[in-house]
Each structure stands twice: as C-alpha cells, then as structure tokens.
C-alpha cells in the first residue's frame, strides 16, 4: 500500500533521498533499483519525447493543447527496418495516451499529420471527439488528400490547416477546415490582416500560434482570431507600485515558510493542523481513488505519516499556490508551474543517480529544482516584478539568480525546461547531455510529471 502511494507521488523513499549516492544502492523503503523517484530504469523505458502546448480561447480558458513530439524517422529514433510512418504512428498513439489524462472535459488535442499518414487513415488511431487533425503546411491539396480529410471530417474529426499565409492552391483544404492556423511571430500586421480578410467568408475559426506577448494577442483578437497559442500568458503586464492584498501576502508568507531549507515534518504538520481548509484538502487528497487505500484515512497525523516530509511540503506548496487562482489563465499558470516543478525534480533525481554511478557528487539538489519550477511563473501569476516577490521568499541566492537573471548554476535547468515546453528537441537533447541525462531520462521525467500533476489536480476537484 505504502509503495503504491510513493509511486503515485513520484517518490520511492519517505523522507530520505530516493536513492543512495554511496555505492549506488537504494535506501531502505526505496524501490529495488537506484532509479530516479517514480521513474523506471531509463535504459528499459520508452524514450518518447512529448510535450503539450496550451491553446486558449478568447475568454482565456484552455480550449485544448497541441501535441508536440520528436519525429522518430531519424536513425537514433527508428530502426532502419521500421517504416518512418509506422514509427510516427506509434509515437502519436503513445504520446496521446500520455497526455490525454491531463485533458479537461471537452478539450481537444491537436496532432500533426503528414500526407502519407492522412492517406493511410492514421488519425483513426485516435478518438474523433478529442483529436484535431492538423494538416501540415507541406501537405498538398490533392484530390486523394481532400477525399481522405472529407471522410475524417464526416466521422467527427476536427480539421485544422496549419501555417496558412495566403498561399494559393489550398482551396480544397480550406473548404474542409474547421480551424486555420496562422504563424504570427514576426509577421507584419498588414500582411496578417490581408490573409485574415481572405478567409472572412469561410465558417472556420482562426488560431494564432507563436503569440509571444500580450500586445500581439490583442492585435490578433482585433483581427478576428478566437484561439491563441504561444507563451503570451507567461509575459504579464507588470503593475509597478501595487502591493499584494492581505490574503495574497499571507499566502506568500506561508510559501516562504514552506520554502525554508530546514522545513521539517513537525513544522509542516503544524501548518496543516492550524488551517481547517488545508486539513480537509489533505484528507481528500489522501483518500482519493488514486491511492487505492483499503481503509479511509481520518486522522491528519496518519495521513501526514503516509506522505512523508518531502511529499507533504510539495503538496502544501502547490495547494497554497493554487489559492492564487484568479481566472482561467492563472489556473493554467499554476498547472504549468506544478508540471515544471515535478519535471525538474525528476530530472535532477535521475541526474544524481547517474552521477552517483560514476562516483561523482550530485550537481544540484532535486528539492531546490522543484522550487525553481514552482516559482518560475510567480511574476505572470501575480503581475508583480519577480525581484519584488522574491524578497518575500527565502530562496538561496543561486535560485533567485536563475529566476530573475537567467544566470548561475540553476539557469541551465530553467533553459532545459523552457526548451522542452516549446518542443525544441535538438536543444533539449543538447542540454540533457550536458547534465548527464539521456533522452529516456527526459521522456520519463516528463511523463512522470504529467501523471503527478494530473493526479494532484484531479484530487482537488
């Protein structure tokens, strides 16, 4: 029972490290092999690099996600006797299975398909009520392609035309399109307005991708776009001179307490016991179906003893951060913060395992990287300068330097995370290699972070 709980939480051990850095042996209570917490052995695990990127509607709600994955048709990803299309189909199916549990009700997942895959009917491996068939810009509007897309549309699949820029010869695809995507990064506004006007008579929705700031978001909204993809949500309009209200200030003080290096189980327990709402949420978390406990936990002390210090502190941090929720975009920022935190923690744990196997010390503590990811989006969440917010948090100088200046020993981990979110796979692999991480390590860390985040937020509903 306890092993299942620890596995779900992403930990093999309790309060101790999930692995021993001496002789590469597991601690008592850990899994049999000295792996990163909650992560199977990388050499035996699938090495599928998958990321999801949110798509927002005009109200700021998450409409769905685009599935980003590493193309498996290169020699290092695909055996020479395996057809590239077959390999890509496998990646799509596996990537979809990984990301789907994190989708909310009614949310869609956009997936790229090349011409040969459309002709082979590959989108049918995914459910029509969730999958949006994204037609790559390299796909010609040939009669066979149009017929294949028409059949998919009749079956309920959403048809999405990618990278439209007014190019001729796409009428057959545009006639079927439910959504047309525009890459707006660096495009002159006049050119964008002209291409949008050309689609005005069509019943399709317009999606602006690579929207990197709020000014571009507003311009696209004025032009008639109703869906938006990019990282504008992480670049806020800062309100200088504004102060946190009393409730926000209290939450920041609580986060400051939880972020202390000397935080222990006794102090964390007192935080929970002194707050009736936190006590209720903790019991609901422990008794959620994901743990599969044979008896109901009714005692705060019992629940905390099952979690252990590290899990309790992490749960408290994310729960407190979630109370800053002021709307749909804030909700996504909190979810991404939790995902980043767990991803970096699992990456650091795996890197420590590999370093220990080579008789080297761990580069960075995984607990610090959890905090790095968790606090990396505080600025857009609260719309206040990060340097000002960090004065309320007792983070070590190296962490604060990485967050505010993107420099210092923690900065490469922040860059790795950002590359992964954007699907910059070459940069991801280069950064991972520099940190002693394999492609499988990175893939399993992201999969574990997705599972943990979905589990955590499910239990709060």
* Strand arrangement in the largest pleated sheet: 1-2-3-4-5-6-7-8
Fraction of residues in helix? 40-55%
Query: Based on CA inertia axes, which overall geometry fits?
Result: globular
The beta-strand count equals 8
Cα-atom radius of gyration: 23 Å
Distance from N terminus to C terminus (CA atoms, Å) equals 24 Å
- Number of DSSP helical runs: 20
The CATH topology of the largest domain is: Hypothetical protein af1432
Order of helices and strands: HEEHEHEHEHEHEHEHHHHHHHHHHHHH
Can you tell me the residue ranges where pLDDT is under 50 for at least 5 consecutive residues? 1-46
Residue fraction in strands: 5-15%
Query: Averaging pLDDT over every residue, what do you get?
Result: 84
Level-2 CATH architecture of the largest domain: Orthogonal Bundle
Q: What features would you describe in this structure?
A:
The chain is α/β, with parallel strands linked by helices and 461 residues long. The protein folds into two domains: 2-44 and 241-458, Hypothetical protein af1432, CATH 1.10.3210; 50-234, EAL domain (TIM Barrel, Alpha-Beta Barrel), CATH 3.20.20.450. It contains 20 helices and eight strands. It has an eight-stranded mixed beta barrel with strand order 1-2-3-4-5-6-7-8, surrounded by five helices. The chain starts with a helix and ends with a helix.
């Amino acid at each position: 029972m306890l092993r299942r709980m620890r596995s779900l939480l992403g930990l093999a051990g309790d309060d101790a490290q999930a692995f021993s850095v001496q002789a590469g042996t597991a601690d008592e209570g850990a899994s049999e092999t000295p792996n990163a917490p909650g992560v199977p052995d990388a050499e035996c695990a699938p090495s599928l690099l998958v990321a999801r990127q949110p798509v927002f509607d005009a109200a700021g709600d998450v409409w769905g996600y685009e599935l980003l994955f590493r193309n498996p048709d290169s020699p290092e990803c695909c055996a020479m006797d395996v057809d590239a299309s077959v390999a890509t189909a496998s990646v799509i199916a596996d990537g979809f299975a990984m990301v789907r549990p994190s989708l909310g009700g009614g949310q869609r997942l956009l997936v790229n398909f090349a011409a040969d895959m459309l002709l082979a009917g590959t989108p049918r491996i995914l459910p029509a009520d969730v999958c949006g068939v994204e037609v790559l810009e390299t796909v010609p509007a040939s009669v066979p392609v149009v017929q294949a897309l028409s059949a998919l549309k009749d079956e309920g699949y959403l048809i999405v035309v990618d990278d439209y820029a007014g190019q001729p010869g796409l009428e057959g695809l545009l006639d079927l399109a439910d959504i047309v995507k525009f890459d707006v990064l660096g495009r002159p506004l006049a050119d964008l307005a002209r291409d949008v006007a050309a689609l005005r008579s069509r019943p399709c929705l317009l999606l602006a991708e690579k929207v990197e700031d709020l000014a571009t978001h507003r311009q696209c909204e004025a032009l008639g776009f109703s869906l938006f993809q990019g990282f504008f949500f992480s670049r806020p309009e800062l309100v200088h001179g504004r102060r946190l209200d009393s409730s926000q200030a209290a939450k920041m003080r609580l986060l400051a307490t939880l972020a202390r290096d000397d935080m222990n189980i006794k102090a964390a327990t007192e935080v929970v016991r002194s707050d009736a709402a936190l006590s209720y949420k903790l019991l609901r978390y422990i008794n959620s179906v994901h743990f599969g406990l044979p008896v109901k936990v009714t005692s705060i002390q019992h629940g905390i003893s099952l979690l252990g210090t590290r899990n309790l502190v992490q749960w408290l941090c994310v729960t407190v951060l979630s109370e800053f929720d002021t709307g749909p975009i804030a909700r996504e920022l909190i979810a991404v913060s939790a995902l980043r935190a767990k991803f970096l923690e699992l990456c650091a744990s795996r890197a420590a395992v590999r370093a220990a196997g080579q008789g080297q010390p761990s580069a960075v503590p995984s607990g610090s990287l959890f905090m790095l990811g968790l606090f990396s989006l505080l600025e857009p969440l609260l719309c206040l300068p990060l340097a000002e917010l960090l004065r309320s948090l007792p983070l070590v100088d190296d962490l604060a330097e990485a967050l505010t200046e993107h420099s210092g020993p923690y900065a490469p981990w922040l860059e790795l995370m950002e590359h992964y979110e954007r699907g910059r796979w070459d940069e991801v692999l280069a950064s991972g290699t520099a940190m002693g991480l394999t492609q499988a390590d990175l893939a399993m860390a992201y999969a574990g972070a997705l599972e943990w985040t979905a589990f955590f937020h499910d239990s709060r509903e």
